[in-house]
Design a protein that fits this description.
heterodimer, A: Rossmann fold, 2 domains, six-stranded mixed sheet, 41% helix, globular, B: alpha/beta, five-stranded parallel sheet
Chain lengths: 392, 589
């Protein structure tokens, strides 16, 4: 049934339909609407789940690690500093192979306090062993959250579903909310492959000495590889039941494109418009949306960019001392690929600044005019600021 | 539509998993701080002159164990029914809950427990110590004398109480009006004291000879004769025919010898007797003016009593000192001098002096003097200084080698003249005599020191008799020692009362009873400061599962093999019934 839903509530509806059994979260803007709705569902019986109120995000994830170890379907949501506080337990959840699903609303890191869209919070957690997915709109958020449980439970890895603060979390859009029966068909009850059991007591995740630790890490990487394959099969199944698929990456007019823009999250929607207009003017431009960040879809990227002479990555995030994080990943994916196109890195829209159509078009023209990338990253639209402290 | 492919099984999982027990990992070896159960002292109990174990009483009440709660009071005070009604409850002033919302209504609960015991005709199971050979005479059956007899009997002595009047009770019977203390309650609690084995001989005056008798059959004599003679005003006309004395007026009312009063009555004084006199006169039909030479806040009468007197229509004239009384056509004309405050002292009563020569006159039909009392015989009072004399907080002990030891108690030695202080006096006297007989005079002071409640001066019989209370730390728990996250705001119970209009009509008790469910709810408000009420937070929060319950439901213990000293149990204890100590290496087992 099509409903006008806030992006946050698209997550809540998906978690309801997924029949999560334990939910624990600590409120933080702009994530709060997600768990607010879920707490009401738990309270009024719409969702038969235990909602654990905790005193911090660290505890929220710790509680879920306990719950998931006992073999139930778990969900949490957070943002920015909250995710940073979870850091230690992010490693734990993946190392313990617990299929926890998290909605992560991308918000800038403080200081200065900024509650607006920025992906640095979740990208800074890229090495924690979580599968990461970046969504473009409300429908994708709902579908991806349902799929996240299936994916997590298949490969026994936690999954983070990312959505941009406000541009997505607080924006109302028409969203098709599937019926429970269809979702149940796609996502049967969770059958844990291991769990704490009073009848057969055991302890998980104690000492792993050098003679086994490496194999365990490699085992996680194998699961990541499997996630790549499984995602495709799973999307096919989802499509057969619910009629939609989104893809780990999505290539728009890339086949004959000379310049390909690479985006993630909500900026993709604006870019679609820019690409369409530039095409009308005869420009050979394509757009590649990366949804799956971990595991990184290296081969798909190589294939889709093979014909281009330049790629331009727009990052709403930054790794200090290096460049945009998606750009780094793209460079790394292409560097061993003979004759790969040069990679331009553009930084735009940090801390919720608008990435307008003009900004994207400007990026296209800059890339087109340039013969080779001059910097590791170009910051687009920097303003003259006259507020510096500590000047003598 | 895409064709559906069968999904292949995921690859095997590698995670550490062990079926061995972790008991071999004795995490106790990491510990450098050691948590311990240690009950402490609640501030209310330290503030109670009788040293009642209030925190525990309320805990038992909240659990519905009314008899045990009542007996817990009886260990320290034989008069819960009386004190629940007439005590000025200093305990509630010190209640930690006051800093949270409102204090616990301790006095209402005390009265509830006594009333419940009376309603179900409960008999207390109190342990008496083995019989001793010493006999003690008690002079006066007021609250201090009866308390002395009661505690001496519990300690195994034979106590004979002598009362000059035909019925026992002293000021409780003759001085406190019925609307505050119904006779049935008093009779009930005196009967209980008798049942314990205290001999009360009424209509027997004692002469000074008893004190001197070298061959007396008594080893000690407790003098609790009270202040039954009114102090004079020392102004002209005070002995005029018809000028009455407040305490005698109250006594006559209780004997049923007073007719209704017409016209205006003036009561001179600011103590509890003056207020009782004023309120009684109002009930008998008079318009009453209470004349006091200082201000309302300086009155020694309990504030709540003054408040109620004003509610009932008594007028209070402050800073008016009577200087002359004259008779005129059967009425009295009292000349009053205006006074002014010369020095304000927060702790003490204000000092006053005449305000120039301003005077006024008042014409009244009845006049009562009630400015305090003194001993009716000079030998009731302790001598000024003598060898073998020990001045304790609530009594004075005079030890003589060949004569009976004398103990002066009650109002004769008390700074604050309250029933609770009288009970404290009787208790201190009984314990002091027991120490004296067993270990001699020099042991009295140091031994009493060990049974103080908190910093004293109140003492505990249970502690003296090495009951469970003796294991408590004397440290008084303060508000900041508690973990108030575990408590919820709840207003104090409201004392149900007769309507103001109903009070004028009769001497019926003003304060009404409360039911058991209300009492439990009020008792549940008590923080039980410093006491373990088996909430089991310590067990719940222990990350090492090192806290176990003993078979005895009151018992918890910590398995130090696994306790790593994180201190969570101590922090999460709402009541401060645990402590965290530095681990001494040599203690480590």
């Amino acid at each position: 049934m099509r409903q006008v839903l806030e992006g946050s509530h698209a997550v809540s509806e998906a978690v309801r339909l997924a029949r999560a059994q334990v939910i624990s979260a600590y409120p933080i803007t702009p994530q709060t609407h997600i768990v607010e709705q879920l707490s009401e569902y738990c309270a009024n019986g719409t969702l038969d789940a235990r909602f654990l109120r905790v005193e911090s995000e660290h505890s929220a994830l710790a509680a879920l690690i306990g719950a998931a170890s006992s073999g139930v379907r778990t969900f949490t949501a957070t943002s920015s500093q909250g995710l940073a506080l979870m850091h230690e337990l992010l490693h734990w959840a993946s190392g313990a192979r617990l299929p926890i699903v998290m909605a992560e609303v991308n918000r800038a890191m403080a200081p200065g306090w900024n509650i607006w869209a920025d992906q640095t919070d979740s990208l800074a957690q890229r090495d924690t062993g979580w599968i990461q997915l970046y969504c473009e709109n409300g429908q994708e958020v709902l579908d991806t959250t349902i799929q996240a449980f299936r994916l997590a439970e298949w490969v026994n890895l936690p999954v983070m579903v990312n959505l941009d603060a406000f541009f997505l979390s607080h924006t109302y859009e028409p969203v098709d909310v599937p019926d429970q029966k269809s979702v149940d068909r796609f996502l049967p009850p969770y059958k844990p492959r291991f769990q704490l059991d009073l009848a057969n007591p055991c302890a998980f995740n104690q000492l792993a000495p050098p003679n086994i630790y490496m194999e365990m890490r490699h085992n996680i990487q194998m699961a990541m590889d499997e996630a790549l394959t499984f995602l495709e099969q799973m999307e096919e199944e989802f499509e057969s039941i619910l009629g939609r698929r989104h893809g780990a990456v999505e290539a728009i007019q890339c086949d004959d494109a000379e310049i390909i823009l690479i985006t993630s999250g909500t900026v993709t929607s604006t870019s679609r418009q820019v690409v369409a207009e530039l095409r009308e003017k005869g420009e050979k431009v394509g757009l590649l949306k990366i949804k799956l960040f971990r595991p990184f879809p290296v081969n798909m990227l190589r294939e889709r960019t093979a014909s281009a002479s330049k790629v331009a990555v727009i990052d709403r995030n930054f790794s200090f001392g290096a460049s945009g994080i998606f750009a780094q990943e793209v460079k790394a994916a292409l560097c061993n690929f003979p004759g790969h196109p040069p990679v331009y890195s553009y930084i735009a829209g940090l801390g919720g600044r608008d990435i307008t159509m003009e900004v994207i078009e400007n990026i296209y023209w800059l890339t087109k005019k340039s013969t080779a990338p001059e910097n590791e990253s170009s910051w687009v639209g920097l303003r003259e600021v006259d507020h510096a402290v500590g000047q003598s | 539509m895409a064709t559906q492919q069968p999904l292949t099984n995921p690859s095997p999982l590698l995670i550490p998993c062990s079926y061995l027990t972790t008991e071999g990992n004795k995490t106790g070896s990491w510990r450098f701080l050691r948590p311990k159960y240690e009950e402490k002292t609640s501030p209310c109990s330290a503030a109670c002159p009788a040293g009642e174990d209030i925190g525990r009483v309320e805990m038992l009440t909240a659990q519905g164990s009314f008899k045990e709660a009542w007996e817990t009071i009886l260990l320290e005070n034989p008069f819960p029914g009386v004190c629940g009604r007439v005590c000025y409850h200093p305990c509630e002033q010190q209640c930690n809950r006051r800093e949270f919302d409102e204090p616990v209504a301790i006095h209402i609960l005390e009265r509830f427990l006594a009333d419940t015991a009376s309603r179900y005709e409960l008999k207390p199971s109190l342990q008496k110590l083995e019989s001793k050979r010493q006999k003690i005479a008690v002079v006066g059956s007021g609250p201090s004398g009866l308390a002395a007899g009661y505690f001496l009997t519990l300690l195994g002595y034979q106590a004979d109480v002598f009362e000059a009047l035909p019925e026992p009770g002293g000021v409780l019977r003759w001085g406190i009006p019925l609307y505050r203390l119904p006779l049935s309650i008093l009779n009930q609690e005196i009967a209980q004291i008798r049942e314990l084995g205290v001999q009360i001989h009424c209509g027997k005056s004692i002469s000074q000879e008893l004190l001197r008798g070298g061959k007396s059959e008594y080893d000690a004599i407790f003098l609790g004769c009270g202040h039954s003679r009114s102090l004079p005003l020392k102004i002209p006309g005070e002995d005029l025919d018809g000028v009455k004395n407040g305490l005698q007026f109250l006594t006559k009312i209780r004997r049923g010898e007073v007719a209704d009063l017409e016209g205006t009555a003036a009561v001179i004084g600011g103590g509890n007797t003056a207020v009782d006199t004023a309120r009684s006169a109002a009930r008998l039909g008079a318009k009453v003016i209470l004349i006091y030479r200082r201000r309302r806040q300086d009155m020694p009468a309990f504030a709540e009593e003054v408040e109620m007197a004003l509610e009932e229509g008594v007028e209070l004239w402050e800073l008016q000192a009577p200087v002359k009384i004259a008779a005129q056509d059967g009425d009295f004309v009292v000349t009053l001098r205006h006074m002014q405050v010369v020095e304000k002292n927060r702790q003490k009563r204000a000092r006053i002096k005449p305000d120039s020569n301003k005077k006024k006159e008042i014409r009244v039909q009845h006049l009562f003097k009630a400015i305090g009392g003194e001993a009716s015989e000079p030998w009731y009072d302790p001598p000024k200084k003598k060898r073998g004399m020990l001045r304790l907080s609530d009594c004075v002990l005079l030890h003589k080698s060949r004569e009976p030891t004398l103990v002066y108690g009650g109002d004769l030695v008390a700074d604050i003249k309250s029933v609770a202080h009288a009970v404290a006096s009787g208790k201190q006297a009984a314990i002091a005599l027991d120490i004296l007989f067993n270990e001699g005079l020099d042991a009295v002071r140091p031994k009493l020191q060990t049974c103080l409640v908190g910093d004293g001066p109140s003492i505990s019989l249970e502690t003296y008799m090495s009951g469970p209370r003796s294991l408590r730390n004397h440290r008084v728990v303060r508000y900041h020692d508690l973990n108030t996250d575990y408590f919820q705001f709840a207003p104090m119970i409201t004392q149900p009362r007769l309507l103001r209009e109903e009070r004028f009509q009769s001497f019926a008790e003003i304060n009404l009873k409360i039911g058991a469910s209300l009492a439990i709810r009020e008792a549940e408000r008590c923080f039980n400061c410093g006491l373990c009420n088996q909430c089991d937070n310590c067990q719940l929060f222990c990350p090492e599962i090192a806290v176990t319950r003993d078979n005895n439901p009151r018992g918890r213990h910590i398995n130090y093999d696994y306790c790593k000293g994180c201190g969570l149990c101590v922090v999460e204890c709402p009541r401060n019934a645990m402590i965290l100590e530095e681990e001494l290496l040599c203690d480590r087992s």
